[in-house]
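Hi C.,

You asked whether I'd gotten around to modeling the 144-residue construct. I have! Everything is below, sequence then structure, no commentary in between.
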Amino acid sequence: MNASDIVIQLDGKEPAEGPIVGRSRSYEPGEILSGQYTIDATSLGGKELSAVEVSVLWYSEGKGDEDLDVHEFWRKSTDDGDFIDPMRPERFSTTLPRSPLSYDGLIVKIRWCVRVRAFVGRREIVAELGFQLGNVPPPEEVEQ
């Protein structure tokens, strides 16, 4: 099983036309982010999913320490008595926060994504789908 065995779809938005063109969809702070994920049951090799976690989070990339913060988190686990049916799409929804806004800077970048982690036996499969929060223009390089 690999990341392509998990498909994440966001509801009703066209791809962004900002600094992260073609890579993500754009949302405003306070807007509802909703969608669904599916897991390809044929890729499980006859094994059952023991847990699935869905997170809406942001992380930084670039120079210095990299940060990560989870805005929303859901977990389904067979240990908790949850029934996990990989044949059925599972929905998620959250109201997006005011910050931090997505930023595609020269030194630091802030990325938002929906991350789905599926646990099959001792294996963990992770898939992510990025989106843009807000519309911060890209920085301009200053010639020296």
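If it helps when you're writing up: The longest strand covers residues 49-62.

Thanks,
B.
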